[in-house]
Amino acid sequence: MKKYIPSDIEPKWQKKWEEDRLYEVDLSDAVRRQYILIEFSYPSGDLHMGHWFAFAVPDILARFRRMQGYNVFFPNGFDAFGLPAENAAIKKGIHPRDWTLSNIEKMKQQFKTMGASFNWENEVITCLPEYYKWNQWIFLKMLGKGIAYRGKALANWCPNCQTVLANENVEAGKCWRCGTEVIQKQVEQWFLKLTEYADRLLWKDNPIVDWPKAVREGQNNWIGKSEGMILDFDGVEVFTTRPETTDGATFLVLAPEHSMIGKFTIAENKNDVDSYIKQVKNKTELERKEGREKTGVFTGSFVKNPVSNKEIPVWVADYILMGYGTGAIMAVPYADERDKEFAEKFDLPIIKTSFKAKPQGKQKVNYHIHDWSISRQRYWGTPIPVIYCDTDGMVSVPEKDLPVELPYEVDYAPKGKPPLATAEDWVEVSCPKCGKSAKREVETMDTFVDSSWYFFRYLDPKNSQQIFKKEVVEKWLPLDIYFGGAEHTLGHTLYSRFFTKFFHDLGLISFEEYARKRVNRGLILGPDGQKMSKSRGNVVNPDEQVKSYGADAVRLYLAFIGPYAGTVAPWDNSGLNGVYHFLQRVWGLADKIGSNLQGNDLEARRMMHKTIKRVTEDIEANKFNTAVAGMMEWLNYLSRKDQISQDEYRTLLFLLAPFAPHITEELWEKISQKYSIHQASWPVFDEKSLEEEELPLIVQVNGKVRDVIMIQKDIISNKEVIEKKGKGSVKVAKYLEGTSVKKIVYIEGKVLNFIV
Ligand code: ANZ
Asked: Dihedral sign, CA of 586, 589, 595, 597?
C-alpha cells in the first residue's frame, strides 16, 4: 500500500463530509440525544493551540456518542462583541464589524482543518442583530421585573479603556486588558440584580448535576452567604455575624462613604475627616480589603453600646466597605483580628467579651456578591434598548422596534463619553410614548450578557419571532456536558445559571440548571513549560503542525497529553512524533490482514475485547489519554503477529475513528469499500471474552496440597479429564506411586483431592 501522507487525505475527507452534511442533526428527534458543548470562542482572528485543545478533544466524545447511536448536537459559534475589535479599530482603522467578520471567516477555515464534527448550520454569531435583538428582549423583560435597574455605585474605572470593570476584571489593582491602574469612581450604570438570585445560585446537594467541586465551592464563596444580625447603636445600624461579642465592642467604625459621617464629625475634627475621605478615594476595594496598614480618623463623637451601656467613640476607616452590610460595624478588638490591629494602632480599649451578650436586633442574611454591572461605555456591544425623554423620563423601546441596531458610523476613539454618543442621527429618536424628540441610551451591554444564554439560541438560531422554541429547548437542554476553561468559574458559568433561572421564572423553560455536567479543561503550555505567548516566543502554531504531521496526529497528541480535566502540560514535539508514528503503523498494519479470527484464538479475542472495553470506558470518563494508551498497547500486540484478522483491524479503526477521523475513513474505505466509518456502530465488548481462559486448581493427596495446576475453563466440569490432568502432574504422581486411589473428591474449579 502507498505511504501515509496526511495532506493527501485530510482535505479530501473534510470536503466530502461537509458536502454530505454527515453530522447534520435532526432536532425533532431527541429520544437518545446528547447536547455536547464547548464554550464558544472570541474571534481574535487566529486559531491557536489552546483552541485545538479546547475543541478537537471534545470532538472525540461527540463522534463516539454518534457511533454509539446517539443523536448528537455539537454546535459552534462566536462570542463576537468585545473590546479587542474596538481596540484594533482604533489602532488600525478597520471597522470593528469588518475586523470581526473577517476574523470569523478565517477562523472557520482553520476550524475546518481540525476535522471536527460541528453543526455549523446552527452557528451563532453574537454581534449580528438577529442574535443581539434577543439580548435586548431579555433586558426589557428584566427591566419589567425589576431585575435590570439603573443605579449608582462606586465602580472600578479604567481611565485608559474609559470603562467600568467588573471585580474579576481587575487583576492586582490593574485593568485585565491594558494593565492600567484602576481607580474608584461613583458612576451611574445598569445593573442586573444577581443578589436577588443569590440564594438560588448557591450550590446545594444536587445529585443530577455533576459539576466539579472546585467550581461549586468557588461559586458559593463568591456568593458568600453570611448570616448575622443588624444592631442599633444610637441610630447607627451595624451588621455583625457575632452578636454574642457586643459587650466587647469598644468603638464604632463607619465606611468613608457612610452618610452619617457629617452628623458625627465635630468642628475641630472636620478637616482631618475630610482629608482622610479624600485620600481614600483612589484606593480600590481590593486594596482596602487587604489593608496592609490600618488607617482611620476619629469623628469626635460617641454612641452608646446597647449591651455594655458604655459610650464608645465613632471612627471612620477604609477597612469598612460601604457596599457590604450597612457600611458600619461595631469593632470588637478582643475577638476580631482587624479590629484588634486598628485598636492597637490608635490606642483604643480592648476589653474581654463574655461571648454571652444577647443584644436586641433583627436577623439578617447578607451576600458578598454584588449586583452585576452590565453597562459599558464602549461601541462594540449590544445597545441597551431604552430612550430618555424630557417628558416621560426613561422609556423602554417597544418590543416591535427591536432590534435597536448598532449604527455603523461612529467615532469610537475614547473621549470620555461613549462612542455611540457621537452618532447623533442615531441618538436622536422620537419618544415611543409622547412622540417628542428624545435620546437613545448610548451605553452598551457587557459581552458576558451575550454568552449567558447562547446555548439556548443554538437550538433555534434563525427564529425571528421568538427567542427560541420551547418544545425544542425542553427536549435538548440541559446540556449533557459543557467543556470550558477554569477561568470561567466566577463569571460566565454563574451568569449563565442566573439567566437560566430567570428564563425559568419567565415561564420560558421548566428547568433551572443548564448543564448536567461541567468539565474544566487543562492547559497546554509552550515547550518551555510557560504559558504560550507571542512575547515569550514559545507559541506552537497548529497550522504548521498540521502541515507537517496532519490534523489526525495533532488531535491524537492533544488527546494523549494527559487527562482532559485539569492537565497542565508542556507541548512536546517528540510526543507528537510518537503519535504520528503510531498512525503510520496503523496504516501499515493493513498489509497483515488475513483470514478472520478463529474461535479458538482466545488470547487474541481477549486482547480485542479488553481494548474495546477500555477505550469505551475511558472516553466516557473523558480520559482520552488512557484510551489512546490502550490502543497503542493493542497495536503492539497485533504488530507482533504474522497475520491479523479482518475483525481485529476493523475494530481498531472503529476505536480510533473519533480520535483520528481522516486516516480511519481512508483505511475503512480501502479495506471495506464502505463509507462512512463515522456512521458505523461503535464496537461492543463481550464480557465472556474478557475472562481469563485458565483457572488455578489445587491438587491434594490425602488432604495435603501437592501442586497447583492450570486448567482450561471449558473443561472445568469434566471430572474425568480433570482427574487425568491431576494425575499427570509430576509432583502429584510422586505421592500416588505405589498406592491405590480409593476415592477422588472434586470441588469444581477449586480442589481435587486423591484419597489413597
Ligand atoms: C463584630 C465581630 C466580632 C465581627 C468578631 C466579626 C468577628 P462576613 O462573614 O464576611 O459576613 N463587617 C460587617 N460589615 C462590614 C463591612 N461593610 N466592611 C468590613 N467589615 C464588615 O463578616 C461579617 C463581619 O465583618 C461582621 O461581624 C463585621 O464584624 C464585619 F469576633 O461584627 B463582625
From this structure: negative
